[in-house]
Design brief:
Layout (H helix, E strand, L loop, with lengths): L1 E2 L4 E2 L8 E6 L5 E6 L3 E8 L2 E9 L4 E6 L6 E5 L3
Antiparallel strand pairs: 1-2, 3-4, 4-5, 5-6, 7-8
Length: 80
């Protein structure tokens, strides 16, 4: 992920296969859904990601999104 304001590249190795991703409107969080039935929410700290929360799903993550104001987060798995 490239942060234009800072001209910095944010990278983080994943030990799972990602299926969807969303960045919060403020650019302070990124949510990554995985084939392993989990969504991980990371805090963006400079050029690093720190895992803040893990959400368990019934099936592989299909969609993740933040509301326009960043107050809400929604996700769906392949079981809908």
């Amino acid at each position: 992920m490239y942060r234009e304001q800072q001209g910095a590249l944010v990278s983080h190795p994943l030990n799972y296969e990602s299926t969807c991703v969303a960045v919060s409107p403020q650019g302070s969080q990124v949510a990554i859904g995985g084939q392993d039935n989990k969504i991980r929410i990371y805090e963006i700290n400079g050029t690093a990601l720190t895992e803040a929360r893990v959400i368990e799903l019934r099936d592989a993550a299909a969609r993740v999104t933040y509301s326009a104001d960043g107050r809400f987060f929604a996700c769906a798995d392949n079981m809908k």
